[in-house]
Each structure stands twice: as C-alpha cells, then as structure tokens.
Amino acid sequence: MPNLQTLSQPINPSTAIPIDSLAETRKQEVVQHLKQVIEPILKNDIVSLGMVRNLRVVDDYIYLRLYIGQYQHHLQEQIQATLSPLSWCKKTYIQPCTIPGVRTTLAISSGKGGVGKSTVAVNLAVALSLQGAKVGLLDADVYGPNVPQMLGLGHVDVQVIGTPNGQRFLPLEAHGIKVMSVGLLAEPDHPLAWRGPVLHKIVTQFIQQVDWGDLDYLLIDLPPGTGDAQITIIQESPICGVILVTTPQQVAIADVRRSVHMFRQVGVPVLGVVENMSYLICNHSGNALPIFGNGGGTQLSTELRTHLLGQIPIEARICAGGDIGKPLTLTDPSSVIGQVLTHVAANLEATFCSRSSLG
Ligand SMILES: Nc1ncnc2c1ncn2[C@@H]1O[C@H](COP(=O)(O)OP(=O)(O)OP(=O)(O)O)[C@@H](O)[C@H]1O
C-alpha cells in the first residue's frame, strides 16, 4: 500500500519534483494508456466513454473506479495489461461499479423542472421495449417522482426480498417495463425531505439495491437541475450516456447548458437533446405554432456539439396518456412522440446493440 504520509509532503527530496506534479504527470501517463482500451461494442476508448472515474495516483499505486455494465467485466484485465508497462506502478486497484444484471444504463435529465423529462423517459422505455429490449425504469426524481402514475401503477408497498447478495427491492412491472421509484418509498403525497448525507446514502442504496434481473437497458429519470441529488446519482451509477430534455424557450436552454457542462465535468457522455413542446398544431389552420419559441434545441445542439435527437409537439393526448397511465407511444406508436422516440430507441439499439452482439 502507498505511504499516505507522503501526501502531506509537498516535495520529494530525492527527485526535487513536487509530489503533486509527479502524481499529475503520472496520472496523465495513465490516462494516455487507458485511452488505448477500446470498448468493443461502443467502439470508443473507455476514458472518452466516461467509464473511468476517480482516477488517482498515490505514490507508485493507481486507483480507479470502472463504471461498467454486465458483460463488460473483461475490461478489467485489459486495463491491467495496458498499465503493466508503467515501470513505476507497483499495483493498480480497480473498483468495478456496476448495477447487477444491467447491460446499459442511460440517464434522462433536464436543466429545469416541468419540461417533460419523465414523459420522455416513460415513452422512451416503451419504445425500447416495443423493439424487443428488456427495459427497467428507475425514477430517481426525488423532487417529483411521477413515473409510477405515468405507467398506471398506484401506490403499492415495495417488496423487499432476500438474495445471495443481501436484501433487495423488488421492482414493479407495467406494460412489460420493470419500474422502481423513490416515490414508492415515501408516504403518498408527502415530499421526500432528504438532504445532504442522508440523501446521498438513500440514493446510493436505492441505485444498488434493486433486484432488476436481466435488463438490456436501465433508464434513470434524474431529478431536474444540477444539484447534490443529481451529482450523487451520476457519480454512483454506471451511466453510459445521458439524454437531455428541454423546451425551446431560452430560460430552459440556459439551464440545459449548465447540465451539459456538469455531465462533461463528471465525464458522462451527452448523447443528445430531445426538444419537447416544440410546437402546437393549430386545429383550424393545421399550422405548427411555436408556443415556447423557435429553434432553441437546434441552437443548443449546434453550440454544444451534440445531437438534436427529435422534436415533440404539445399534444393533449401525451398529457392524458400520462394521467391515465397509458403512454401514447404504447397506445399510438404512430403519433409524433411515438415516431420520435421509436427513432431515438432505434439509434440507441444501433449504438449499444447489446442483444445482437452479446450472449
Ligand atoms: N409534449 C407534451 N404535450 C402535452 N403535455 C405534455 C407534453 N410533455 C409533457 N407534458 C405534460 O407536462 C407535464 C410535465 O411533464 P413531466 O412530468 O414529464 O415533466 P418533468 O420535466 O419530468 O417534470 P418534473 O421536473 O416535475 O419531474 C405533465 O403533465 C405532462 O403530461
């Protein structure tokens, strides 16, 4: 183990190189080596994919967290092999972070509340499921957990079961999608008044302690914004990418910009932006009316060099579908939201294609 005392000494007398600067140089060297490890399905290196986090070099030892899905454990051996030529490195400690049974974890996020993040999450889960994927939806929106209602689930007591790995929450099921929500852990109609370390502990347990079985995709519906809760969830989950939801108006766009910077700082790839409530089709003229402004999603995706994944109109049936627990993508896949999210789901399948390429 490294001599932790050296951390408090700014100078290594033998080399006269400041310890901090030596560690930083070594860290950069490690990063360059790690960039040679390519994830075979995503065809990109594990650093750019945000799979390596909390990388530290202490003395002659390397520590890192590796955020992986089920079936990516082989990357650990590759990392060890890639780092073995570093002559100064006595040992690499890899802490694998995974959600048991889950191949691909994706987050749905928004800069501000009420823009339709949960609506998109629920309908995207349905679209993926209609394409044959096994899908789970984790409603981690501690400020407004609406997913159970949007999928027609009333307030049911969550069952806890014993597994070889300890006690686990049993997810509910709706329309073929496995569902777990922070809202189910609280009294109905009561706010979830968790803050600081308590919030951190509960959210961390919540992410790790659900018995999902085998899933191709776990979608995490994040709380809106860039506060403590979001950062904890992002840091504790093996999220492979995030889809941001916004409305076209400038205040919403400004908040999404902040979110994108947060994700990039933590190293989570932003897959693209879905613009919701983009326009309203006028019953009389049939024209598209840009109620919340025009071009915000396009402007944002150009500015932040990310993709505009689709534009969803304001439609009463989307709202009604959420209220009665029957997502419009399920009841009318040819609706605009159905088409947009089917297209997004097909792109996700093409990118993460877990079923076709892995056993
Ligand atoms: N395209 C749309 N057309 C009509 N109504 C919509 C549309 N998208 C969302 N809604 C409605 O807007 C409301 C807010 O949507 P939703 O709960 O999905 O937003 P959210 O961003 O997840 O909110 P929160 O931040 O509170 O979690 C809901 O009543 C939903 O049915």
Automatic annotation (TrEMBL):
<comment type="similarity">
    <text>In the N-terminal section; belongs to the MIP18 family.</text>
</comment>
<dbReference type="Pfam" id="PF01883">
    <property type="entry name" value="FeS_assembly_P"/>
</dbReference>
<dbReference type="InterPro" id="IPR000808">
    <property type="entry name" value="Mrp-like_CS"/>
</dbReference>
<feature type="binding site">
    <location>
        <begin position="111"/>
        <end position="118"/>
    </location>
    <ligand>
        <name>ATP</name>
    </ligand>
</feature>
<keyword id="KW-0378">Hydrolase</keyword>
<feature type="domain" description="MIP18 family-like">
    <location>
        <begin position="27"/>
        <end position="83"/>
    </location>
</feature>
<dbReference type="InterPro" id="IPR033756">
    <property type="entry name" value="YlxH/NBP35"/>
</dbReference>
<keyword id="KW-0411">Iron-sulfur</keyword>
<protein>
    <recommendedName>
        <fullName>Iron-sulfur cluster carrier protein</fullName>
    </recommendedName>
</protein>
<dbReference type="InterPro" id="IPR019591">
    <property type="entry name" value="Mrp/NBP35_ATP-bd"/>
</dbReference>
<keyword id="KW-0408">Iron</keyword>
<comment type="subunit">
    <text>Homodimer.</text>
</comment>
<keyword id="KW-0479">Metal-binding</keyword>
<comment type="similarity">
    <text>Belongs to the Mrp/NBP35 ATP-binding proteins family.</text>
</comment>
<dbReference type="InterPro" id="IPR002744">
    <property type="entry name" value="MIP18-like"/>
</dbReference>
<dbReference type="Pfam" id="PF10609">
    <property type="entry name" value="ParA"/>
</dbReference>
<keyword id="KW-0547">Nucleotide-binding</keyword>
<comment type="function">
    <text>Binds and transfers iron-sulfur (Fe-S) clusters to target apoproteins. Can hydrolyze ATP.</text>
</comment>
<keyword id="KW-0067">ATP-binding</keyword>
<dbReference type="InterPro" id="IPR027417">
    <property type="entry name" value="P-loop_NTPase"/>
</dbReference>
<dbReference type="InterPro" id="IPR044304">
    <property type="entry name" value="NUBPL-like"/>
</dbReference>
<dbReference type="InterPro" id="IPR034904">
    <property type="entry name" value="FSCA_dom_sf"/>
</dbReference>
